Amino acid sequence: MTSAPAFPVPNAGERDPDGRLVAVGFDSTPAPGIIHRNPWLIAVDGSDNALRAVEYAAGQVGRLNSCDLHLVHVQPWLSTEAAEAELAQRGIAATARARDVLDGLGLSWHLHVTMGEPARCILEQARRLPAAQIVLGSRGLGMVESLLLGSVAYRVLHLSQVPVLVVP
Where are the domains of the chain? Predict the structure, then answer.
């Protein structure tokens, strides 16, 4: 009899000054005192575009064998009660396919789930690591759509202090 994989246990959490849970972290292989080697930050929103970015980064890291993969998933702001009950679950659900790809390749990962404006949260997490590179998928918006709707990739690309790879 096989059992379903256990829900990952958070290894980190962050609260705002009001005590609201605003971020939670997970590791594929929890270990105390992890030293981050050349961390790559990959933005994951559950889309096929984000999955392509994960697959591309995994292929590159597999060849280099000297990088740690950090997935970041950003949720919109939730109420205090919703954050406590749902933030971790939403992040785990939205990143399931990406984590499965990395697990299937035998690559360890770190997952950071946070709330807020996506580009700002991605850049803040990259600064905290500090990330050597940011990898994210493109939604494929045209020039006019990007100007009207805004683009997370565009904002990250132009505001980042580290190299950014946008995977189409």
Answer: 23-28+35-167
Q: Residue 102 corresponds to which tokens in the numbers above?
A: 């990395």
Q: Classify residue 155 by burial, with Cβ atoms within 10 Å: 0-12, 13-18, 19+.
A: middle
Residue 99 φ/ψ, nearest 5 degrees = -65, -35
Contact 41, 129 (CB under 8 A): yes
Candidates 3.40.50.720, 3.90.226.10, 3.40.190.10, 3.40.50.620; CATH matching 23-28+35-167? 3.40.50.620
Decide: 71 and 137 in contact? Cβ < 8 Å: no
pLDDT digits (tens, 9 = 90+) for 51-107: 999 999 998 876 666 788 999 999 999 899 899 989 999 999 999 999 999 999 888
Single pTM value for the model: 0.83
Give the number of residues written for the chain. Answer: 168
List the one residue out of 71, 87, 68, 95 whose CA is nearest residue 20. 87
Round to whole Å and give the CA distance between 151 and 145. Answer: 9
